[in-house]
Amino acid sequence: MLETARRKFLDPNESARREALEKLWDAWERIKTIGGVDKKSGIATLLDQAAETNDTKFRKMLEEEAKKLTDIGNTFQIRHSETNQELLCSSDHIDYLFHRLFSLIYLILRAAQRISQE
Fold this sequence. Notes:
Elements: H1 2-9, H2 14-31, H3 39-51, H4 57-75, H5 91-111
C-alpha cells in the first residue's frame, strides 16, 4: 500500500496524488492494528516503540500527531465522501498532508522493524 501511494504521489497529476493520499490513509488505518488486538491498543504499542519509551514528551507528541491525523482523515474527503466532510481544494494541501502522514508512518514502521533501517 505504501509503495502504491508513493508511486502515485510522484505523478504530477493532481488526481493521482489525491489517490496517493487516499491509499496512504488506508495504510494508516491498517497500521494501527499491527501492534494489538484493536486500533487503540495497536497504535499505543507502535507509538511506544517509535518513542522508545512511553514516558517522554516526544511520545506524547507522537500520540497527539496520530490523533490529529486520524481527525484530519475523518474531517476531509480523503478516504470517504460524506456530506459533512470538506474537500481538499489545493494540490499543496494534498502534498502537505501526504508528507505529514508518510513521515509518521515511516517512523512507526522503522521502529517496529517493518521496513529496512538502511
